Each structure stands twice: as C-alpha cells, then as structure tokens.
From TrEMBL, chains A, B:
Cofactor annotation: Mn(2+)
Name of the featured protein: Xaa-Pro aminopeptidase
Keyword terms of this UniProt record: Aminopeptidase, Hydrolase, Manganese, Metal-binding, Protease
Entries under InterPro entries matching the protein: Aminopep_P_N (IPR007865), Creatin/AminoP/Spt16_N (IPR029149), Creatinase/aminopeptidase-like (IPR036005), Pept_M24 (IPR000994), Peptidase_M24B_aminopep-P_CS (IPR001131), X-Pro_dipept-like (IPR052433)
Primary enzyme class: hydrolase
GO terms under biological process: proteolysis
Cellular component annotations (GO), alphabetically ordered: cytosol
Pfam families given in the database record: AMP_N (PF05195), Peptidase_M24 (PF00557)
Parts of the chain that traverse the membrane: none
Molecular function terms from GO: manganese ion binding; metalloaminopeptidase activity
Listed PANTHER family: XAA-PRO AMINOPEPTIDASE 3
Amino acid sequence: MVIHNTYSSLADTLSYRRQRLANLIDFPVILWSGSSSPRNFPANLLPFRPSSHFLYFAGLPLQNAAIRLESGKLELFMEDPKPSSALWHGEMPKRDEIAQQIGADAAKPMSELEFFLEDAATIAVQDAGTWTQQSQLLNRWVLPQNPLQGIDLELAKAIISLRLTHDEGALIELRKAAAVTVAAHKAGMAATSKATLEAEVRAAMEGVIIASNMTTSYNSIVTVHGEVLHNEQYHHPLQPNDLVLADVGAETEMGWAADITRTWPVAGKFSPTQKDIYNVVLAAHDACIAKIRPEVEYGDIHLLAATVIAEGLIDLGILQGNAEDLVEIDAHALFFPHGIGHLLGLDVHDMEDLGDLAGYEAGRQRSDRFGLGYLRLNRPLRSGMLVTIEPGFYQVPAILNDANLRVKYQNVVNWQRLSQFADVRGIRIEDDVLVTASGSEVLTAALPNDADTVENLVS
Amino acid sequence: MVIHNTYSSLADTLSYRRQRLANLIDFPVILWSGSSSPRNFPANLLPFRPSSHFLYFAGLPLQNAAIRLESGKLELFMEDPKPSSALWHGEMPKRDEIAQQIGADAAKPMSELEFFLEDAATIAVQDAGTWTQQSQLLNRWVLPQNPLQGIDLELAKAIISLRLTHDEGALIELRKAAAVTVAAHKAGMAATSKATLEAEVRAAMEGVIIASNMTTSYNSIVTVHGEVLHNEQYHHPLQPNDLVLADVGAETEMGWAADITRTWPVAGKFSPTQKDIYNVVLAAHDACIAKIRPEVEYGDIHLLAATVIAEGLIDLGILQGNAEDLVEIDAHALFFPHGIGHLLGLDVHDMEDLGDLAGYEAGRQRSDRFGLGYLRLNRPLRSGMLVTIEPGFYQVPAILNDANLRVKYQNVVNWQRLSQFADVRGIRIEDDVLVTASGSEVLTAALPNDADTVENLVS
Ligand SMILES: [Mn+2]
Ligand SMILES: [Mn+2]
C-alpha cells in the first residue's frame, strides 16, 4: 500500500465526515477494514477490497486495520509492518505516518483494540475472517447477512444519511472513475473491428482501467448475448450482425466507482431493427435524465422509462395498446425486466451490503410486481446523490417463452412483428447522473450514446 | 460457466486420474469445489477459483459442487440451476449434462451429500463458507491451516504423488498457459517504450491474458523496484535508466498455471552494469536448466544457481573469495535470498495449500540457513514434474543495510565496487521447465531471455 495524496486535504474530508456523523449519533463506532482472502493457497491472495464504510471514514485502503470514531475523533488501530516483511514487501508506511495523513487523533496497535470496545456500534465486513473477529471482540454475532439491530442499526442509518449524498472529496474520486470508464468504453469500441472474441473487447476495456492503476468496480459484462442480464462469459465469437453489450466500470484506488453500459454493433453499423430499438432505449434514457432533479421520486423515473419504452415499442408495432395501461400491467417488463438504476458511490450498488436500507426510503418495501420488484432505489432524489440511469430492451428466453406470461400478455404483444427484431438480443445504455441543486449533471457525458456517434467510434 | 471441450477426452483423463488414486487408497474421498466470496456486498463477488484438488479430479470450474471418489468411481453432487436463475444468468448446463461430460458414474443434488459421508477423507478448501460446511458435514474440523491427520493425511499424500508429475491432459493445458504467458511478456516489452507508468506495462501484459479468456495465476509483479520481491504496486513512473521486472503468469479456464519472469531495460538498452549482472543471472538460469533430469536433487539445482551467481559476482569484483566457500556461508543470499523455484501445476506454487508436504520429500524439513530457508522444493526430480527456474540478483535494503549481515559478510563483499551497480535494483529470469525422461523441456522457451534479443523486443 502506498499513500497517494489524491486530494490535497484527505484529512479535512475525513474530519468533515466524522463531524457529520457525530451530529447524528452519540455512541462510539468501530469500523474494520477487512483482510484478503486466499485464492488457491494461503500465500496466493484474491485482490483485497476494504469495507466501504471503513473507506468512507479512513480514506485509505488499509488491510487488517480498524478505526474508532467518537464525538468527531478518529483513532487508528493497526499493527506496524514487521521488520522481516521489508524483505518481501519493501518499506511500508508506518502506523504513525498513516495516522498523520488521515488526520487521526491517536494511533494504536490492533492488539489494543480490545480495550476500546465498550458500547461500540459496528457494521459487518464481508470476509469471514474479519466478521468472526468482529463477533468475538464485540461478544455478539456480527454477520453480513444478519438484520441490523440496536446501535448497529442506528449507525447504519446515520452512515446512510451521510453516504446518500456525496461531498467534494468523493466527487473528485467519482469523476476520476467516470473519466477512466469513459476511456475504457471508447477503447472497447475501437478494438471491436479487429476482435474475434468477446474476451478481446473486454481486454481492451480492462486494459485501460489497469493502465490507470484502477480496478474494475464489478465483474465486467462484455457480451454478444445481452439477453443474459448478468453474463460473465467472454468466450463467444463476434459475428457481423451481433451487438456488443458492455457493462464495465472502473474503481479508484480509494474505492470510488463508476458504472457505464454501452451497446454497439460489431460491424460498426446498426441494422435498421437494431437502430430502431436502440433509439427507443435512448429515448427512455434521455427522458429519465431530463427529469432528474431534487424531490423527484426515483420510482417515478423508473415508471417514466417504462412508459417511454412502451411507447416506443407501440410505435414499432411490437406492443399494442396505450403506454400507461401497458405499464400498469407490467407489459414493459417483458422487455425491460430490471430497475432503471441504483445508487452509486463507494459500491457500484451503493451500500447494498445493508440490503434495501439505503435504497428504500424508510417505510417503503420492494414491490412484488413483475415490473417493479427489481427496482434497487426508491427514494426522492436529493442534491448530491449519484444514480445510474440504465434502461434496456432484452429478449430473454426465460421470460418470452414463459407459458404463463405468454397467456397473460397474449393480447398486447405482436409476436409476429417481434420476430422481425431477432437481431436485437439485448441493448442497454447506462450513465452515471449526479443530482444537482438545479437538475443533474451526467458524470459520464464524455462518452457519446447517440447511434451515429457510437457507430463512428466502432468503425 | 460454459463447458469447453478443451481436450477431446476430459472424461478419459479424469478416469485415468481416479484409477491411479484408487491404486493408492482404499477409502472414499469427497472433494468440494468451494464458492465465491463477496467483494464489498453480497451480490458483488470476487473472482471464483475452485479448489485445485477438486479441479484435478472434476476437470471443470464448477461452483458449490462436490465429488465423491471411491474405487475409481466418480459421483457428482451439485444443485441444478434454479429456473429463476435463467433470467439473470441464461441457460446453464444441467447437473446431468456436466456429469456426462466429466464421465461421472452418478449425479445427485448437493442436499444428498450428507448420506454419502461415511469414512470419507477430504482436504480443506480455502473459502471459509465451504470449509465450515466441510467441517459440519464431516463432523470434524476441516480447516485450511490445520495439520492433516489420519485418512486426510493419507489422501493428501496420495494426491501429491499423482499431481507431482503431469499427465498428457495436464500438459496440454500447461502448454496453453505457457504460450499465452509468453505472448503477454512480449506485449509488455513492446509496450514499454510508450508507457510512462508500471501500470501501463502491466495492462499490456494482462490484456493479452484477458483477451485469451484466461486469468492471472497470481497477482502480477510489474515493477521498476525489483528489489521489493513481492511488489504489488504499479504506480511508479518508468525512468530511462530503470529495469522493468515483470513476474506475470496466465492460468487456463481449467485452472492450469504458467509463471514467467523477465527483466528488461525501459530504454531498450541495458547499461553496462545492468548487462553484467543480467548475464550472471542468465548464466545461473542456463546452468540450472542444463542440469535438470530425473534423479537430480532440486536442492542441488538451487546450490548450483547460488554457486554460479557467486562466481559471476566474484568475476565482477562484488564478492571476494571462492564461490563454493561463499555459498557455504550463504554469502550468495545477500543478493539471491530466495529459492531457485518451485513446483508448478494447478497452483503457481503447486499444492502449497498442503504446506511443505508436496515440496519436501518425506523426512526432509526446511533449513534455517539464510541461503536455503526459502527453498520451496526439495526432492529428487522425476520425469513429468514441472518446476520453475528463477535465479535473481537484488539489492534489498533490508538485507544490505542489516548491521549484523554487514558485519558477518564484511570480508566477502566489496561495498565500494557494489556501489557502481546502483542501477541494478533487481533482476530475475524465470522459466517453466518440464522434467523429461532424457533431461528437460522448457515450456516457456518461445520467450527469449538473452540480453540482446530482449533489448530488441523492447525497442
Ligand atoms: Mn448499473
Ligand atoms: Mn515463480
């Protein structure tokens, strides 16, 4: 781990976050960073990713560390590197140097943490080694999948209220992640004409991210089978009539994420049917972004996307009826079965480790409606929130061949007409949109999304 | 997961391995594949890597599966994909299809495994979720770090005796990994002149691996600070007088690894001092490979490398005395502090999850000598073994500035002369060498390692 002074005042940013937390809660907090997990043997480790809650208040991707927050004070707990580790890992920054950089009020060895646990709240990290330690030290079960209770729940709610809107320190990082992700997508488009496999396009995209000394914020989707929504296979050949759907995002060294999807034609030219559907999805995307401003309900943005897609599919003769009525019966979800987007921040689905506590306004719950159940965010928007807008159109066999759905929607789908769009398996267009006081700013706007410009970037 | 028929007779290879196992043990065996670990929230997973022991007998990178081996029979235990998963993950191969491809004699749901546990031996996987499950089902602690006992120890010894030498199915995969790794290193050399950061060279190398739909078999080392032996930082700028040390290896989809190190000059031209040391390391590398054949002790190969390096450093005026005497007192380890290499197979340090059980012949233990303690392999070579040969020269501050070592070796190091080699921080040359009946075959020979050709590949 090397200390990068990515913004001049990391310590100031962290101090500001602690003060805001202290305004909300009056008990001490201990947050663990987590530790690496072994891949196939103990010395061969999977890439380390610290807990996002730790990163938010500690700033740096420290391993096997903890911080204690109380009344705006920050204490850092970690071991100094062993002298013998210098042989293998070189000179690493000492605890006191790190403490100074992050503006900690005190720095102590991890072994002393046990004396500072009283009445402290925490949030479970993801790796079993660390949540076992959390549980043992705090003498209660601290499990990632457990429902939060008591002061842990109060802490989670307080952190959510901070992390829901981004401060300047966060935005600097989020803009860096967005810029590298834009460059990655351009590289993917440019690499397509010479590529024969999905994997080669993925390599061009992730190469940009690696070259920027960043990581992917999630496992990339780079596929000609966009109809498989979470497709993590890259072995398919690229055929001239295929569309490449690429959902790839970078994450900065401090852990802040971007998340972009583009869909482009392998041959550099959309077929007429592909372009028709592409423009329906783009119309939904643009309409949603135009509507984003504080106080607007994100659930209404989702319904707007559904309505614009339904309208577009009516115009193309694929759906029949009135758009609002079709959305009412979830007919849009035959082709747009997921939500319009999600929170974005340190996590690509920000704070999803807390379940729907961050995504759903207090008192609201997931719908069990076919067209609403996958919505990850259901809150009024506020200035400083960062959300994705990612409408899509997919011909998912598991949906379109479902006997019950075919009966239910027999009168609203023109299957004959739909069969003419067989070369459109999946299209998604996703951008990262910051809610501002006056409306919105698209952090990923440097990446074109209109069909003509996308074609030009490919060929 | 998609089924690739990477070699025509996966089932035959697996059957052969089972028969060999059945010749060694007479109790049933259950091997678990393991499961993915979450990154920062449960739906965002770290890359999945199955247990190597499972891969050896099951062939395919299945998740949340187990196999039972008894008397040469193979039973597969896994759940069929849920119908609802087709929406997100597409149609996945069913248990019975997978069972057929791997030649299983039976296929059952995971939930039935509990009825087939009696008297079964196992080996712990690395992920906590799965070793907890192993422990619960077998009603004993099955922990990755526990010393093996009883039938588990017998099983480990039997598996080691199989995996120590590679069958044809394994060699096909190992050659593929080597070929892609060779291409990755060539790409790294070619990218250096336009690169400004280590990260950009790493991106060019890993890009080749990703484009081949493979993964890295370990976290890449791509650094101008080769003196930090396990350097996983990539942010340093490339200066014209720097050497890039790149230790990068690919792993096939079925889990078989390669492991190559090259060291090249950023400017495409070694300085005279860099070339002098480079040629010392290369001489050691070549001498070791020339000596490899069945029955030769790998420990003697290590001592040969130490001796050749000592001789070279004497010739350069850095060390003083007689090479054999210097090796006797571990003076070589001031500059070559690690072992000459290790086993290579499904793991980059093959079977290191079993500690030194695979690397060390029965009855042998690690030396505590400065110049021998890091040796990972200490056995007589046998035809079919794959080992790395990776001599190096490093100026590690933690060693060369160590007061005790400076006193101990005050009469054998010419510090004045050494100071003229300040532009050589670290050099390593590593190839993957298959022991054959008549000697050896370098699987990574397609990648040049002589100084002139390396210079040409860079510039
Ligand atoms: Mn997204
Ligand atoms: Mn090696």
